[in-house]
Amino acid sequence: MNADDGASQTIAIRLQRLAVPVAKSRVPTYKKLGLEPLVREATRWQELRSSGLAWGMAAIGKAEPDRWVELTNLFGSTGESALLAASAEVEIELFRGAIRDRTVSREYGISQRFFAEAQGQQVLGTGHRLANVVARALMADSSYPWGTAELGDISGRFPCQSVDRKHWIAISRAGDLGRAAQASGVRSLKSMARSLEQLRKSSEWRALEDQRGSDFHRARHESPYFAHMRYTVEASKKTISMYGSPAADDPAPQGRVEGICKISRSALNLLLPAMKGIRLGWTSASRTLA
Questions:
Q1: For residues 192 and 181, what is the distance between their CA atoms, to the nearest angstrom?
Q2: CB atoms < 10 A from the CB of 226, how many?
Q3: Distance (Å, whole) CA 161 – CA 10
Q4: Which residue from 23, 42, 122, 263 has the least number of CB within 10 angstroms?
């Protein structure tokens, strides 16, 4: 066993709070963060929620009004999650600056990571709800699934307003929705499904799913400020080594935190084209179907 005897041994860190206490004048704007277009788009989604009554009335005689109202509520919920993800970026940037100018200690990178993980969670939730928006847009047509084979548990229309888990899908079904949309022959529905598939297939989305899998289902590596052990095997030699906490001027810990932040922000950036494409597609499809 090897031990780094000369290094400090930080065992645990208890932060007093998760937020950075700063003056309002120092809080970055969405425009400065490059998120203003996404915030506008997400707000439009919430505005569509208020159109539920009009959509439901327009659907009378051709489709179930409650199916259309269910869709409007999903628009609102999806917009809210996208806005929360954008707001998390404000907190991430505040911590980034405070750590850089030493307003707070570098260990507050734990809080920065917390907001990045929360952002990633909201981004993933937005993606799954986008899939359900597209699914319910397709199912608003009584001809769904237009003869499409091998759709499994989405081969029939979901009941309106169902809270049963089997009537809610993950974004991983984007390919199946795409096949059904193609069979519909409705250009706007095909456009909606294509926007969803592009999001699902992107390398940025896969990276976020991998990060989420590590954080929620595997080890979730502890933040990089602590003493730790490492087990290695080299040429049949087995060694347990104890390492001290990183030096105060070591940039590696913040670099690791920034890596996690980059994954969630990169996926967040993809929500704008996906949400815009799906919204515009539905605006057209709603007129066609009603």
A1: 8
A2: 17
A3: 51
A4: 23
